[in-house]
Amino acid sequence: MDQAIALDPQLSKGAGQGKSRRPRSDDLLRLVNSGDGSTVGSVTITLAGLTVNGGTGLARHPQTDTLYALLKIQGRTFPDLVTLNESTGVAAFLGLLYSRRARGFRLG
Q1: Is the Cβ–Cβ distance between 90 and 43 less than 8 Å?
Q2: Tens-place pLDDT, residues 26-80
Q3: How far apart are CA 7 and CA 53, in angstroms?
Q4: Of 5, 51, 63, 85, which one's alpha carbon is 20 to 30 angstroms from that of 29?
Q5: Distance CA 5, CA 19 (A)
Q6: pLDDT tens across 29-39, in order?
Q7: Global pTM value
């Protein structure tokens, strides 16, 4: 079974077929079965002193293998750009992304 990580594995289901849904508003980073999108494990995302309400983007740097995420934080208008430890769920703040439309990004 191939596995991948996701903020919301259901977002990719039906991609390109005109189907869409709102992202989940929770604080979980999921390990998913790449074949059927089922969750096979998860860790809680934490960012020191803040409440994580979900995420809108996830990307891995192709050379360094660092995992980056855009997180929705309670009380903030714009998403936080963070690095993410996928084993522990601990996020390290890098900065704010001053766009309400940020739904993803690409590295490389």
Answers
A1: no
A2: 888 888 887 887 888 889 999 999 999 988 888 888 899 899 988 999 999 888 9
A3: 11
A4: 63
A5: 21
A6: 888 887 887 88
A7: 0.76
Q: Which residues contact 69 (CB under 8 A, 6 or more apart)?
A: 7, 29, 45, 55, 57, 58, 59, 81, 82, 83, 84, 91
Instruction: Please give the sequence-ordered ranges of beta strands (E in DSSP) within the chain, or none if there are none.
Output: 3-6, 28-33, 39-44, 52-60, 67-73, 80-84, 91-96
| C-alpha–C-alpha distance, residues 76 and 4, integer Å | 29
Distance of CA 62 to the CA centre of its chain: 17
Q: Are 91 and 47 in contact (CB under 8 A)?
A: yes
DSSP annotation of 51 = -
Q: How many helices (H) and strands (E) in the chain?
A: 0, 7
DSSP 8-state assignment for residue 23: P
